[in-house]
Amino acid sequence: MRDILTFLDRFYKCSMRDECRIYRNMYRNRYRKELLIAKQKANCDYIKGASNKMKAMWNVINSKRPKTSKARLNSNLAANDLKDFFANIPVALINKLPPASHEC
């Protein structure tokens, strides 16, 4: 199935005809659906064949999750530093404003 899709893709790129593009896209969608079904079946077979089904389920779930870094950023900021920074923003903005004229 993959070989046929590769052939159709190359054929479309050579010919650039609309009917080739439509056929290639239809076949690509079918290929993707079949691939999804095959992956789901493989996951089901893996879980059914496992002696510890709960662990097997979590292995499948974790294999689909993005990998996250466990490294933590070292920061010397304290809660009071953040509070002071954000509390002083309005004062700094007001000081940057030009003096208001009260003439009407």
UniProtKB/TrEMBL annotation:
It comes from the Eukaryota. This is Uncharacterized protein. It comes from Zophobas morio.
